[in-house]
Amino acid sequence: MINVTKSYLPDLEEYTNYLKGIWERVHLTNDGPLLRDLEAQMKDYLGVKHLKFCTNGTIVLQLALKALDITKEVITTPFSYVATTNALLWEGCTPVFADIRPDDFCLDPTKIESLITENTQAIMATHVYGNACRIEEIQAIAEKHNLKVIYDAAHTFGASYNGRSILSYGDLSTCSFHATKVFHTVEGGCIVTDSDEMAEKLHFYRSFGHRNDDYYSVGINAKNSEFHAAMGLCVLPKVPALIEARKRVFGYYNDRLDFSRITRPTLTPGVDYNYAYYPVVFESEEVLLRVVESLKAQHVSPRRYFFPSLNTLPFSVGHQPCPISEEVSLRVLCLPLYPDLAEEDVNLIAGIVNEALIPSGVVY
């Protein structure tokens, strides 16, 4: 089976060497030395001032909303993983969906201002597939209307925009370190800020609101463990090589797919990409389903990502039309992409896709 992704695992001995230290110290969690080391190394790698390593990429979105005191309307994207919308709903906020750009599938800044009301407090945008939003345009709107900006940057580790990590933009930016990501800690995530005051607030929010026996604020348990930090310390030094390997696979697809019948999202100018995903867009959902069926018949498992458009979720706040997102979500498919995906496997996948694009009985 060729899955849509495959987690990178470091040398087992390298990981167990960290485990030996955990066994010796018997310090398993609660801001341990490996966690602090990983945070320091990630800050250095990303060039950011403050970074808090947490349990996953969803809880950091919830922390961002809580830390910025967002409780009302948030203008957000319908084209993202469900965690983006779930975090808003879970924190009692009202998601207001603005449609996406037709070229890069990120939140369209030109659709934002008409949705702003007296209850609007923030913009929560997703850097789709690791590609940056129109950051300057979103920031200008936020400053004009006194709104906060939160970026769901779950896909962006190792990607940069205008020479800076994409995670360095916005009032707060979050990332996921799930096992399927470019950089992972099995489960995990982070939240990034330039503000000393905000970093201190997030420190307490992450850990029940107290330090030792001194209590400072409300808080939850968003701490991550030494075991997860150990995985991160093993994987982090490999990230440049992993991105290069993903780029090579990316190139194989570019050379072999028939782009007369499919398209890909465009890259935002100024982005140094991390090759997180390989999405393709078909002419119709009918064609997509035919391709999926053909791939699965050959034991290849792609993913409809993102699907469905989040403004159509039955448990959200009522349908808010976003025709571009709704249409794209029906036609987009992520093909398998991971560092050690073999060239011959890409040849197989591309061949299946190209053949399935042609309706049966039609000869070209």
TrEMBL record:
Superkingdom to which the source organism belongs: Bacteria
InterPro entries, per database record: DegT/StrS_aminotransferase, PyrdxlP-dep_Trfase, PyrdxlP-dep_Trfase_major
Cross-referenced SUPFAM superfamilies: PLP-dependent transferases
UniProt keyword terms in alphabetical order: Pyridoxal phosphate
Pfam families with a match to the protein in the record: DegT_DnrJ_EryC1
Similarity comment: Belongs to the DegT/DnrJ/EryC1 family.
Name of this protein: dTDP-4-amino-4,6-dideoxygalactose transaminase
Naturally occurring in which organism (per UniProt): Spirosoma utsteinense
Lineage: Bacteria, Pseudomonadati, Bacteroidota, Cytophagia, Cytophagales
